[in-house]
Amino acid sequence: MPVQASQGNQTSRGRGVGLGLALGSAVAFGGSGVAAKPLIEAGLDPLHVVWLRVAGAALVMLPVAWRHRRLLPRRPALLLGFGLLAVAGVQACYFAAISRIPVGVALLVEYLAPALVLGWVRFVQRRPVTRAAAVGVVLAVGGLACVVEVWAGLSFDAVGLLLALGAACCQVGYFVLSDQGSDAGDDAPDPLGVIAFGLLIGTVVLTAVARPWTMDWAVLAGSADMDGSAVPAWALIGWIVLIATVVAYVTGVLSVRRLSPQVAGVVACLEAVIATVLAWVLLGEHLSAPQIIGGVVVLAGAFIAQSSTPVKPGGGPAAGGVPQEQLSKTGSAA
Predict the structure, then answer these.
(1) In terms of DSSP bridges, do strands 229-232 and 223-226 run parallel, antiparallel, or are they unpaired?
(2) 242 vs 1, 287, 326, CA distance in Å?
(3) Do 206 and 91 form a contact (C-beta atoms < 8 A)?
(4) Among 69, 145, 153, 179, who pairs with 102 as Cys (CB 3.0-4.6 Å)?
């Protein structure tokens, strides 16, 4: 009993740390928009902002990539997949989507990713998912529809919707690939190395798409307007690179490894809520009553989802130490 109690305490602490990391990642990712919007209004193309974000983060993480250079020949498929999907794919598909459909619609479709993650876990990996996780996803997506006020800009551009769905699928890749090796013990690929090489690969891909040599570099030497206040452009770029990319990816990947792709995916829905609140505080974009209600619903969905206990492959104990037989009686939706 003392041993079981100790293991339970360790599991509880690990889950708490994972949730803290997931929330930190949502805050960091959510803070990208409030810094990017003034830069775009100052004259930078959205794709150029994305390129600066990823290329700057890749430069910061370059020493980490060199330190973990042996990872390249060991796990080339993982690194290539992370760079193409989790870095370049999400960014390119999302920005291409919002050029054709309203931002709210694109966000809603992109954040169908947690539901797609559940489908991946259940039907591809053939692992049970709990009712709590499923209910959390439904609530989070419904609340997100209110946060982005999807009804305010409904339009049906088939290509735009497909691009947004592509962003959602790439985000699924982010959560699934972040979980790779979490059960491999000492042989697990170092998450920092995966992120560093992913950013480098993403930079190569986005360079071909964004064509940064056509950027108006003079904008970076000036300032941008943030709700009436002049902010140096370099400071906004620094925030996007260091916080909204490096910190966001590191905390996000670590949270997936401590939780599970499906739970971390639902908590990530808070990114849209946080982005909306930050835009309210820093950019003067006021929240409506439906947005506030939607934010509360997303929080409720994330809380319910994080209470679920993911089941590991092979029918063994779940991550929380609960036997699979007991799970089937108390909340498995398998």
Answers:
(1) antiparallel
(2) 45, 28, 44
(3) yes
(4) 153
Q: Which of 187, 189, 207 is nearest to 197 (CA)?
A: 189
**How far is Cα 285 from Cα 298, in angstroms, rounded to an integer?**
20
Query: Of 200, 177, 195, 311, nearest to 257 (Cα)?
Result: 177
Local structure of residue 75 (DSSP, 8 states):
S
Mean pLDDT over the full length of the chain: 79
Pick the more confident residue, 306 or 18.
Answer: 18
For residue range 142-170, what is the model confidence (pLDDT) as tens digits?
887 887 676 776 656 778 778 888 888 99
The residue type found at 248 is A
Evaluate whether 143 touches 291 at the Cβ level (below 8 Å).
Answer: no
From the list 325, 322, 300, the residue with the least C-alpha distance to 309 is 322
Greater confidence, 48 or 328? Answer: 48
- Nearest CA to 180 among 12, 313, 306? 313
Burial of 209 (0-12, 13-18, 19+ CB in 10 A): middle
Per-residue CA distances from 180 to 173, 184, 193, 256 (Å): 11, 8, 13, 10
- As a whole number of angstroms, the distance between CA 187 and CA 190 comes to 9
pLDDT at 104: 63
Residue 273 or 230, more confident:
230
CB within 8 Å of 317: residues ≥ 6 apart: 323, 324
Token look-up 């390119």 returns 92
pLDDT digits (tens, 9 = 90+) for 175-226: 888 887 655 555 678 999 999 999 999 999 999 989 999 999 999 999 988 8
Measured between alpha carbons, how far is residue 56 from residues 47, 62, 241, 290, 299 in Å? Answer: 14, 10, 6, 37, 32
Question: Which residues on adjacent β-strands are paired with residue 311?
Answer: 318
What the block records as the tokens of 181 is 């090796």
